Amino acid sequence: MSRRPFVAGNWKMNKGPNEADALARALKAALANQSAVDVAVAPTYVALPAVTSRLKHSGIHVAAQDIHPSVSGAFTGAIGGEMVRQLGCTYTLVGHSERRSLWNEDDALINSKVHAAFRSGLLPIICIGETLSQRDGNQVEQVLGAQLAKGLEGLEADQVASLTLAYEPVWAIGTGRTASPEQAQDTHQFIRRWLSVNFPDFVSKAVRIQYGGSVKPGNAAALMAKPDVDGALVGGAALQADSFAAIVLAAVP
Ligand code: PEP
Fold first, then answer.
1. Torsion angle of alpha carbons 22, 25, 29, 31, nearest 10°?
2. What's the mean pLDDT in 55-71?
3. From 61, 68, 168, 188, the catalytic residue
4. Whose CA is nearest to atom 1 of ligand 1?
5. What's the whole-model pTM score?
């Protein structure tokens, strides 16, 4: 089964509404002629209205960077999935390593956000990954297995088949240090095998697994050429239209 490549850009806490609109406009122009790759961008919440409106009918999807597990309520400063869906988001990131480390998000909270995403009609992009000391301690499979088991708890097979996993080794995020294509493939293969053991066959064949961690135009093609690497989640290089567009075009089969 061939999976459609999927490249997403995480703009993190960069680009307010005006700059985000300019970047969205440039991306829309740069990617106007490609339809072989699914593309999404994740601006800050305050830029969502500008970006969703700019990218309407462009084929480029918009993602939230995070959602709260509840629909609404007394949660000062938080944003619910239904709210971003109303703005035109189709995806949400969940469990990015910065949320895990800076906001102390654990797998149980991440799991509740994944369920909230589905309840709101959003498709989650769930980030998983090990730290450097966990990799050096040969704990990669144990760490990822636990993140998957807890993060996907209680989901229907159809829901799992429709979501995206982003394998983002923490040591490669924003560091300029990338997993080699072989390291990425080995780990993605482990993730897909884990899915095949824990869910019906069609699930592991359908789930798209993005690689994330210092993906740039120069390394994107080699990473995404690997059979289990179905695309990329891009941070720094997603902040310029030309570099993000080059990564998207590197994903064209
Ligand atoms: C990220 O934060 O999801 C990421 C992959 O960042 P970068 O590409 O900058 O390493």
1. 100
2. 97
3. 168
4. 235
5. 0.97
